[in-house]
Amino acid sequence: MDLFDRGVAFGLTPFETLLAYKGEVFFIDEHFKRLKRSLKILGVKNELTFEKFNREVYSSIKGINHPIVIKVIFIEGDIKIKLREPSYTKEQFKRGLNLSISKERKPKSILNHIKTFNYGQNYIEDLRAKKKGYDSCIFLDYRGFISEAAYGNLFFIKDSLVYTPSITCSILPGIIRKKLIEHLKVNDVEVVKTNITLDELKYFEAAFFTNSVAGVFPISKIGDTTFSKSATQVKCEIKQFMEKYFSCWSIH
């Protein structure tokens, strides 16, 4: 590996994290599209095709039927793949996560919209939260609105509506965020993309975050605000989404 490659030197190596279960890689086409979009924004010329991406990803999980996480990075003109076991547990899904509120703010930056190795802020704040006894943390954006979790997009439920921070809140617009919003829309559940303040947390009955490994992960507490219900209890449509794509995390 060339340590002076600009992706390595500046933390701009693009990557994707995918989940596979029983030989199926979820949303692989969406991950490929996002990787190609990241490469375009970064100005990296490449000849990566979906056929090659699909072939190498599926080749890496041959014979593996349990849940497995696939990390694909693009470096030195090609993709490299590494597998790891999921870090989430069914026990965590059952109790929900307790998240702190980071004092660090998410800046306004083009880097918010591409997935690269430039994850230092998230990594450091996640470690700090864990040292204080939390499971992880959330961030506010540079204006003080709720942005995202360290490793996922945030959602909240009140009455019949689902709320999520808008794309202007310095978020990485995740693939599961997109697919869940599409699923809810098809099932006539309105999703409000908006600015959300910390003071408004007390009005929500449930909270969760989404990412490509966990799917929909329940949150039991953010700071001093406790959420009494899980998202799958409140919205059957969210439960349906989990059962369709992330049955490996089923706690029922």
User: What's the name of the CATH homologous superfamily of the largest domain?
Assistant: D-amino Acid Aminotransferase, subunit A, domain 2
How many strand units? 13
CATH architecture of the largest domain: Alpha-Beta Barrel
**H/E topology pattern:** HEEHHEEHEHEEEEHEEEEHH
Q: Into how many domains do the coordinates divide?
A: 2
Low-confidence stretches: none
**Biggest sheet record:** 9 strands, mixed
Strand content: 25-35%
Cα radius of gyration in angstroms: 18 Å
Shape: globular
CATH topology of the largest domain: D-amino Acid Aminotransferase, Chain A, domain 2
**Average predicted local confidence, pLDDT:** 91
Q: How far do the termini sit from each other?
A: 45 Å
CATH class categorisation of the largest domain: Alpha Beta
Please state the structural category: alpha+beta
Helical segment count: 8
Family: Belongs to the class-IV pyridoxal-phosphate-dependent aminotransferase family.
Cofactor: pyridoxal 5'-phosphate
Protein name: Aminotransferase, class IV
Pfam family, one: Aminotran_4
Task: Please explain how this structure is put together.
29% of the residues lie in helices and 30% in strands. It folds into two domains: 6-84, D-amino Acid Aminotransferase, Chain A, domain 1; 90-249, D-amino Acid Aminotransferase, Chain A, domain 2 (Alpha-Beta Barrel). With 252 residues, the protein is α+β, with helices and mostly antiparallel strands. Strands 5, 6, 7, 8, 9, 10, 11, 12 and 13 form a nine-stranded mixed beta sheet that branches. A four-stranded antiparallel beta sheet has the order 2-1-3-4. The chain is globular. The protein is built from eight helices and 13 strands. One of its GO terms (cellular component) is cytosol. This is Aminotransferase, class IV. Its cofactor is pyridoxal 5'-phosphate. GO terms for molecular function: transaminase activity.
